[in-house]
Model the fold of this input.
Amino acid sequence: MNILFVTENEISQQLGGTDRITITLANEFVRRGHNCYLAFCRRSEHPDRCGFKETLLLQDGQESEQLTDFLSIAGIDIIMSNLVDIKYKRRLLPLMYNATRGTKTRLIACYHAMPGEDLLGNRILNSIYRIRHFGQLRRNLKDIALTLAPRPLVMKLFGGKVRAKYRLMYDNSDLLVVLGEKAGRRYAEIAGLPYDSKFADMPNANTYDLTPDPEILKDKKKEVLIVARMDEKAKRLSFALKVWQRICESGKFDDWTLRLVGGGPDLNYLIRMADRLALDNIVFEGRVPDVLKYYRSASIFMLTSSFEGWALTVTESQQFGVVPVALDSYPSLHTLIENRKDGVIVPDNDLDAYTDELMWLMGNTVAREKIARSGMESVQRFTIEKVADRWLELFGQLQADNKEQEI
Done:
């Protein structure tokens, strides 16, 4: 089978979850004997070549001719669109969809985000910080408005544009893949569409190709870990710092450390906030080339995001026996965690409950290790082998349906 991945940038592990998933899937498909190709719109500084048989840099104004020729010459069976930015979707999805009509090629549009995140604002203090330090006045004023305005008014002002954006992927693909049925139904509701057979739900594969080893639990330290882009709007890390403030004030866990790994636009904002809150035992590691050593040593993982598509860091933490504690803020979370069995789920925005659950885990080694072991078992549902099997089954069904339509 010939599979073409289409992305905005030349893929790189350093550019985030969508790129890591593309790399993981492409490598597995190649390992199974399929041919994988990549078409992208802009180059990256540190690209990962994977096993792509050929790559194609799409030139502005020439994409239609380039793609039409490439689909024919390479004999592409499946296009997987991993486009994220709406400006690239608007430009390329209709073009690719039209180019595949009357051919054997089927187009799959993958939606990696949380449906509805477009309608969420940002904390006002962070928006003001971003205006002062980065400009982007219009974008940050919009975030403030989304935060302050009641939901009905938000839908009146922005609902039409958002619906059109969601309809774009549905109308210009043979299949729209989402991260779970709940996410798909929310997507359909926002777009004003039926949740029908054009939707398919698919989990993300585990980032690391390894079999979790319970022996790693012997080397765990009294560390709470956050691995995230330092982006306050999406990751809501101020919430995590407020939780840690309460833990510090309790005086019960002075031998524990909170470690934050990752860079991003709000790193200095969060460092200043930690200083203002006078937090003890907190370390900002910044951007690092390899996070594995932090997963290996940590005991608990904090996820406080306002929204996520999947949150690869949850399954990454489970792979390494780090118990995830997550706010119930996005649909696919319940696919990843069964509360107090292989992780902990806390009601969204509940600072008291989050603090209580974290302190319970920190103070209860037996329960913590039991949940960690269960997480190491449950995360095996998302091995690359199992997820690739589901993808290939989906490809086969698409091709079969296409042949039936031709007949």
